[in-house]
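A quick word before the example. In earlier lectures we treated sequence and structure as two separate objects. From today on, think of them as two lines of the same record. Here is EF hand written that way.
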Amino acid sequence: MRKDIVLGIALALSSTAAFAASPTFSTLDSDGNNSISKDEFYGSVSDWGTYSDWDTNDDGLIDDNEFSTLATDWGVDWDYDPWDANGDGHLNSGEFYDGLYTSYDANGDGYWDQSDWDDAGDAGLWDI
Ligand SMILES: [Ca+2]
Ligand SMILES: [Ca+2]
Ligand SMILES: [Ca+2]
Ligand SMILES: [Ca+2]
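And the structure line, produced from the sequence above:
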């Protein structure tokens, strides 16, 4: 293989990884105030399609089966019921992102600081 082709492939791989698998605290903290608000979180995470990743049957909602399958994959022990805020048996995207955010907001103040971030997965958010 020619050298420039190899380089092109390497670049393509590394840029994909940087975007999808290695978000950093400062990427999400778009206003740079050292905390990640819900709005900052929603703005990034909804762009990544995390909700549709969990909606494995593509019906636009996350049910408790889909939730427990992914929770098992991620090795987390989360209760479905508190996430389903309106109690209709499904998670819409708002309930989903709220639940995700709240699960890692250890002191419940509505902001993620660096230590909340560090707890969210092994190496940043989705690299669990
Ligand atoms: Ca911020
Ligand atoms: Ca579904
Ligand atoms: Ca619901
Ligand atoms: Ca917090």
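Notice the following. Residues 105, 107, 109, 111-113, 116 surround calcium ion (ligand 4) (CB under 6 Å). We will return to this example when we discuss secondary structure assignment.
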